Amino acid sequence: MQDALIALGLVLFLLGLLTGLAVPALKNPRMGVASHLQGMTNGPFLVLIGLLWPRVHLPHGWGITTVALLVYGTYANWLATQLGALWGAGRRFAPGATGRHQASAAKEGVVDILLVTLAPVMVAATVMLLIGVLR
């Protein structure tokens, strides 16, 4: 688990760096900056959790579930903002970053689903991590 978290964190960090380079070419550069920041913060977060992992004491199934939730939440955050930047979507849940951009209903729906689902996932994963560290 530890190695996987560290590797996935580094990949997400790299995606954040590459997103930063692409910002001027995106349909919505402001959302592109948001996506860049998601990669730049969530990538190191996964690395940090990987380094912390030896101190997390959870049953095996809970550990796998926690890692899956963390990976989903962090990557969904980057992906939602990246798609929003590419498509000009995200008006409902990220109006400050979306501005006057608006995409098709299907594209807006994809971004909305990612943004809505990642929040409870990250809360649940963080609670599970806290339980694991305090055990």
Strand fraction equals: under 5%
Which structural class do the helices and strands define?
A: mainly alpha
Tell how many strands the DSSP assignment holds: 0
Count of discrete domains = 1
Oligomer: single chain
The helix tally amounts to 5
Based on Cα principal axes, name the global outline: elongated
Termini separation comes to 18 Å
User: What's the helix-strand series?
Assistant: HHHHH
Unreliable spans:
none
Largest sheet: none
Strands, helices and their partners?
Blueprint: H1 2-22, H2 29-52, H3 60-87, H4 95-98, H5 105-134
Commentary on this structure:
This protein has one domain (2-134). It is mostly helical and 135 residues long. Helix content is 79%, strand content 0%. It contains 5 helices and no strands.
How would you concisely characterize the structure shown here?
The protein has 135 residues and is an all-alpha fold.
Key traits:
135 residues; mainly alpha; elongated; 5 helices
